[in-house]
Amino acid sequence: MKRHMFALLPLVLFIVLVALFAAPLLRGTDPSKIESAMIGKPAPDFVLPGVLEHERPFEHADLLQQDFALVNFFASWCVPCQAEQPVLTRLAAEEGIVIYGINYKDNRADAVRWLEKHGNPFTATGYDNAGRVSIDWGVYGVPETYLVNRAGMILYRHVGPLTWHDYVTAIKPLLKRNGP
Amino acid sequence: MMKYILPAFLLTFLAIVTPAAAVLPDEIMDNPVLEQRARAISRQLRCLVCQGEDIDESAAGLARDLRLLVRERLLAGDSDAEVLAFIQARYGDYVLMKPPVKPATYLLWLTPLLTLLAGLALLLRRLRFKPAEGG
User: Which tens digits make up the pLDDT trace of A101-111?
Assistant: First the structure.
């Protein structure tokens, strides 16, 4: 009897491994999405020139002007950003959320034209041509969206285009829980 | 024609196995000692865009920006450990090619040892319970 149990060991191990590998696939976990190391940390200090000509610079102090702000990293060469822009526009218009935009490694003329075409829901924009400020935020691709509270603390990061469903399930509960 | 096939094959093979660095000429530092350190540090940092590659061998834009940042920190006088900590603070443990040993990763690091011990235990059991069949 005991010997038969040992003979089954490889099969049992195999089944355990299959379960381990299948679980993230079935859950829909995307391995390319990495958890941010910046959650619970203060947003980095920065000053960036505005994307639009008449715009003032966008800086860290702006983050402290409202209870919550979203900081969205975008680029004119980023196709998923186009899909996301109507969602950001709706968030600003219907939910009254302050959204700042940081333009990542882009050409200024392209960025201006992109904002004209796809809409500009941003309270202020920053032009991060070198991508250096984005590195301080821990950005590794666009689009990425960070939730910051009045203390300038990063509460959440979303990788990839933000959908309305993402807002309702992930961001809205955070606004409630951390609300003033 | 035929005589070129073998050399061509060998050259192709060499091209495949030679580790390719993605460092561009304009990134290389004037100080060769610092450049050596920069290369060594770059090989310890993961490219988060490509994930399987370190930033020294990745052609991704972010990898290049991080290589330049590593060199900038070295010029500013950072030690190797300080440069790694600087990047890790922004991108987390995952940016390190070699995961740090800490409670969350004990299982990861100890798994090979545990597997070896389990195998030894099984082997000893077999040898002890069935000495007659041994050999």
Answer: 999 999 999 99
What CATH number does residue B43 fall under? Answer: 1.10.8.640
Q: What is the pLDDT of residue A29?
A: 80
Residue of B46, B58, B91, B108 to mutate, testing the A interface (most A Cβ within 10 Å of its Cβ)? B91
Residue range B17-47, pLDDT digits in tens? 555 678 888 899 999 999 999 999 999 999 9
Size of interface A-B (CB pairs under 8 A): 41
Q: Using only C-alpha atoms, what is the Rg of chain A?
A: 21
Q: How close is the nearest chain A Cα to the Cα of B51, in Å? A: 8
Query: Is the ipTM here above 0.95?
Result: no
Q: Is the peptide bond prior to A143 cis by the omega test (within 30 degrees of 0)?
A: yes
Whether residues B17 and B54 fall in one domain: yes
Q: How confident is the model over B54-92, as pLDDT tens digits?
A: 999 999 999 999 999 999 999 999 999 999 999 999 999
User: Which one of B46, B70, B90 would you mutate to disrupt binding with A, by most A Cβ within 10 Å of its Cβ?
Assistant: B90
Sort A109 into a burial class: Cβ within 10 Å, 0-12 / 13-18 / 19+: exposed
Clarify whether residues B86 and B125 are in a common domain: no
Residues B25 and B82 placed together within one structural domain of the fold:
yes
Q: Under a CB-based contact definition with an 8 Å cutoff, are residues A58 and A48 in contact?
A: yes
Same domain, B105 and B93: no
Q: Does B49 sit within 8 Å of A34, measured CB to CB?
A: no
Q: Are residues B70 and B116 both part of a single domain?
A: no
Closest by Cβ to A131, choosing from B51, B65, B90: B65
Considering only CB atoms, A140 lies closest to which of B88, B91, B93, namely B91
**Pairing state of beta strands A98-104 and A68-74?**
parallel
pLDDT value of position B135 = 46
**Which residues span the domain enclosing B124?**
101-135
Q: Are residues B61 and B115 in the same domain?
A: no
Domain count for chain B, please give it. Answer: 2
pLDDT digit string, tens, across residues A72-115: 999 999 999 999 999 999 999 999 999 999 999 999 999 999 99
Residues B95 and B34 in one domain: yes
**B49 interfaces chain A, CB cutoff of 8 Å:** yes
A37:B88 CB<8 A: yes
Q: What are the start-end ranges of the E strands in A22-143?
A: 47-48, 58-59, 68-74, 98-104, 124-128
